[in-house]
Amino acid sequence: MRFYNKPYILAAVLLLTSLSLAARPQSDSTQIKRLQIIYDEVKKEFAPDGRTAWFKLEHNDRNEYVLETTEKPAAKSFQDKLIAEGLDLPLTLSLLPDTTLGEQRYGLVNLSVVNLRSTPRHSGELATQALLGTPLDILKKSGGYYLVRTPDAYLAWLDPAAISLKTYKEMEEWRQQERLIFTADYGHGFTAANDKSQRVSDLVMGNILVKTGKSKGYYQVSYPDGRRAYISTSQVTEYASWLKKAQPRPEKVIEIAKTMLGVPYLWGGTSIKGVDCSGFTKTSFFMNGLIIPRDASQQVLVGEPIEILKDNELDIDLALKNLQPGDLLFFAGGKNQAPNARVTHVALYLGEGSFIHSAGTVRINSIRKEAANYDDFQSRTIVAARRYAGQIGQAGLTALSASSGY
After folding, report:
1. What is the three-class DSSP state of 246?
2. Tens of pLDDT along the chain (406 residues)?
3. Residue in 59, 122, 188, 357 annotated catalytic
4. Does the annotation mark 122 as catalytic?
């Protein structure tokens, strides 16, 4: 779903009754089972990936069922199936964003790097990260956390301190302002136009701020929450001019990838502070103007397939012949245990059998057995290759310039 689509509002209360489930006839267990079957059918068709589509059915303390979803077609299908089955169960059906959010259904990331979690709590698993200036859709609030959607359509929970809530109008105004993108690996914003003054925040590659002035080799900038700072002109580029030049050409993607050599592996990481395998490829493409899916198992579903396997095993000669620098290699750690093992790792192909990836640290390995940096395990578990070059605009590969969020 694209950013800035004005939210549909659906709050249909279906077949409500004052009877509790406990007081119903035994035959109601059949209805409940059928409800679960319908839920599973609709979820499989319209929301099979919970990372990008919210589709939750819960039973509350008032003995009512509540279906909550981001997918309008799923909501309609679920409702139609219930009516067709004639199920008489207390059910509330609603479509996110939650109407209680009011007009502040959008947001901008406030901090250099923020942690988005799989559940609305500090102890929740790190699902992904987002950078300062990233636009977000706000879907609901629970337990002090916001459920948000990122530009790559990922759904996760974010601490309120990490986000500045905005209205649609405010987001449009932000998009029209003169902005800067931080292109150095790492740096800081300062309270004055010198690096000896007090720090306002740290900054990392990919951060986006609004330009408000220039003084003595520094840009004056504003953060989404209104803070002001000065940043060295050598560390940033004017966003508009950068965006015009940003093209995911293989050599440029590889150039950014190599700047991250030595960066430690971090599950869920997508910044120079730490990256997981798919966060590494995502960042390499993002800094060249392309938004790609978040996880390796999603990245393998887009792009042009490249033939590198023979009899379900990597064929070195075929791979060396067909692969081009900038292609993505995909791996399945459980390949030897299951014929259709889930993709669990991704790497960026450099050429001549070498690839760069985040595994322990961002490093370069080879699929060639005679190479000093040959990686036996990774080579044995390669299951696919994809080429993104020339595929921009297809589902899942969005040019930053075409993203309505940015």
Report:
1. coil
2. 223 333 333 333 333 322 233 333 334 788 889 999 999 999 999 999 999 999 999 988 888 899 999 999 999 999 999 999 998 888 888 899 999 999 999 999 999 999 999 999 999 999 999 999 999 999 999 989 999 999 999 999 999 999 999 999 999 999 999 999 999 999 999 999 999 999 999 999 999 999 999 998 999 999 999 999 999 999 999 999 999 999 999 999 999 999 999 999 999 999 999 999 999 999 999 999 999 999 999 999 999 999 999 998 999 999 999 999 999 999 998 655 555 678 999 999 999 999 999 999 999 999 999 999 998 888 889 999 999 999 999 999 999 999 999 9
3. 357
4. no
Q: Among the options 59, 122, 188, 345, which is catalytic?
A: 345
Helix (H) or strand (E) holding 152: none
Whole-number Å distance between alpha carbons of 222 and 52:
31
From 59, 122, 188, 277, active-site residue: 277
Domains and CATH numbers, the chain: 11-96 (no CATH), 101-174 (2.30.30.40), 177-244 (2.30.30.40), 250-387 (3.90.1720.10)
d(CA 382, CA 396): 22
pTM of the model: 0.90
Q: Is 277 annotated as catalytic?
A: yes
Q: Measure the CA–CA gap between 101 and 218, rounded to whole angstroms.
A: 38
Is 59 labeled as catalytic in the residue annotation? Answer: no
- For residue 310, which amino acid is it? K
